[in-house]
Every structure is written in structure tokens, then in C-alpha cells.
Amino acid sequence: MPIIQPQDITATGKKFSTIIYGEPGIGKSTLALSAPNPVFCDFDRGVLRVRAEHRKPTLEMSSYDEFLEDLDTSEIKQCETVIIDTAGSMVSMMYAKYDKQLNTKDPRKVYGAIKTEFSRLTGQIRDALNKNVIYIFHSVEEEKNDKAVVRLLCEGSAKNLVWAPCDFGGYLYKRDSKRYINFTSSAVAFAKGCHGIHDEWEIPSLEPGDKNDFVTRLFEQARKNIADDDGASNAIKAQYEIVMERGMKIIATITDEATANAAKAEISELNHFSTSKKELSTLLTKKAKTFGLTFDKKLDAFVAGGGGSQ
Fold this sequence. Notes:
The protein is of the alpha/beta class. Helices cover 40% and strands 20% of the residues.
């Protein structure tokens, strides 16, 4: 596999894996369907609950193996986003598959297989097929330290395992008649943010005829954030390379004690970036040693002979 240099890494066309969860009827499916060019993989026979104008091509699932086979269909190949609704039902189908396949009485082994498969599946859809993948979960309240906390409604420990391979995930909820999705964990609900997608985002109300594109715009913002970060990083890298080139030329002028100390002074005045000061100082000392010079800390200078302290 070829190595990609940092300057060649780009967010153009990057795909994301996302979890959306919340209570039934709050609009998770409609929100997920605002992703770019989606196919709706219906594990709950729930697509009819989505307003007709927001429905997209749909595949109805009756088993996990059927879903894996459908990943090779033309519908999936032509889409940009694969929506799994609900992922809790998909995990239940996974459990049935691996419980039978492993023939074990130890549920931990089954959940271990589910964790491995969930990560593999996410990688297949996002990386191999180059699609966004959105997992929709219902939420459930649980007691923790005498407080109610919101978690994914999912088989056993799988509700904790499915977060790992996902880029970000948000809890969808309603407050004062408005809907929000939060990508930052709180005391009451777990969430996951990255690429600048954090905190609370208000979900716009959709009137008949309104464009449903919230997640599309969210993904675009994430890509922009990555590109902006790359741009800032590349600017620093360019400045670093300029300083290093200038410093190497200065070091090349060393021939004796006087030129070594002149080089030290000149390098200290450079506008350093990243690790350039440390690296050039090391190279400077190494070059000075080739002329029998050592650095005396008390004098803050290079001196001839071996009496200096470094």
C-alpha cells in the first residue's frame, strides 16, 4: 500500500460514520434522510412513518445476511449514504446469527463477535464502498448513581461497543418545542464529536416543501473544518521548512569558534516554527564538535577544547 504524504491528504470526498439516537417519534429517520443521496435500509419496517416527500429508496431487511448481500446491489453502489434504521434491530439480527454460529452459552463471546463485525461493517461501507453510513438507534433511560442517563437501546453490551468505529454521534432531543442534536457528552447523555462537530445544533422544523438537508450540510461543515485545519497545518509546515533551510545555510558557515558563536546568535533570532529551534540547535552543536568546539553553559558560548559543559 503506497504511503500518502501529509500534504497530499485531503478531505475532498471524505465519508463519515455517524450515530443518531433519540426517543421514538422524534424524527431520527427524517434527520438521517437529510444526508446526501441516501438508501434507507429498513430493519424495523418503519419507513411508512416518514413523511412521503422525505422518503428515499428503501431496502427492507429480514436478516443480517440479507443485508450483507444487499450491499452489493445497484441501489447501494449508486448512493452516497447508507442509513441503517434501526441499528438496534440490526444488532439483534447479528446476535441471532452469531449465537447460532458460535453455539456458545457465553454471551460475551457473542458480543465480542458483534463488536468485531460492527467495526468491519463500518469499514466496509465507509472505506471500501466509499459511502457515508448512519446508524439510527432508539434511546432508553437507565439509572446511574441515582440519576437518569440516556443510552442507546441495543442488545446487552453492544450499546457501548458500537461507538468505537464511528466518527461522531449525537443525541436528538426536544426542548421548548424545538429539536436539537448534541455531539458532546453530558451528565445525562453520551455523544461523540470530531472534525469540529461538537456541542448542540438546532434542527430546523420542516414545513411541506422544505428542503431536508441538515446532515448534508453537517458533513460539508466537517469536511471544511478538516480542510481549514490542513491549511493551517500546511502553512506552519511551509514556514518550518523555510526556517530549517535558512538555519542549515547558517550552520554550513561554521569553520571555527567565532563562526560557531555567530551562527548560534543568528539561529536564535530566526522566527522559529514547530521543532525548528530544537532541531537546528542540535545540528549546530554537532557541527561545532567537528571543529573541536564544546558549548559552555556559563559563558553561553562555544569554546575551543574539551573544557566546556553541555
